[in-house]
Amino acid sequence: MKSLNSLVVLAGGASSRMKKNVQSQTVLSPEELQQANERSKGLIGLGADGRPMLDYVLYNAKKAGYQKVYIVIGEKGELFQEFYGGNDGFHGLEVVFAIQAIPSGREKPFGTADALYQAMEQYPELKKLRFSVCNSDNLYSVKAFDRMRHTKSSQALIAYDRDALEFDSERISRFALVKMDDDYNLIDIIEKPKGDEVGKYKDNLGKLRVSMNIFTFDGEKLFPFLKHCPVHPIRNEKELPTALLNMLVEYPGEMKAIPLSEHVPDLTAKNDIVEVKKYLKKHYSKMDW
Prior knowledge:
By secondary structure, the chain is an alpha/beta fold. It contains 9 helices and 9 strands. Helix 4 (112-122) crosses helix 7 and helix 4 crosses helix 8. The radius of gyration is 18 Å and the shape is globular. The mean pLDDT is 93.
């Protein structure tokens, strides 16, 4: 199978939850509060010398062997281009940008499936490639990126052990569960499962697995399902898991769920800033690009 070297990072969301006022604002500095309220989540300075979250995501991706990164940004994403758009790339990574335009009549982007669709329209080579996709506000490990890059399956996602995630139970209960067959082929992704139904989704090791939105896709197979992705009836967005599951109707057994047990730092709301800063200080005191 041809080597996989391209990564698409979804960074064009509205960051609505990050901008909400929360109790922990009192422990954030004025600069941190300003960035949380004004910047995209992946650009909030959290690490040494104010390094943003996305620096660490790209660092781990490069360590895993990715060479080209497509960052999907919003129409006001100039700061991403300022941080990562140098002519010489970013620490050896080739970085390009796709703009997720907001359709007429909407105030916010049209969701993750639309983000990837617009990126593939702007960079048609993605329609013929295998590539990985991830968020800009989750810090996936080198191991996770390596599994995505070297999977022998044409398409895959990481199925995280829910018990290994270092979040409170209420937050974990909101993560989408991954349903697989005994050979770890993806069958379904269940959003916000009901508490009394959770147990039936355990894998053959007795583990509940969740998706943290890191995938490897076959662009040629996925693209038509992005293009025709239906709008979620409640959230009013075109969501990547919907397109993925519709693709599996036509290509059953196509996507492998790769089990992994580790924590994934998540930057969703202001409450997360302090914890992610502690994590970065502990695990990323040195970065040998």
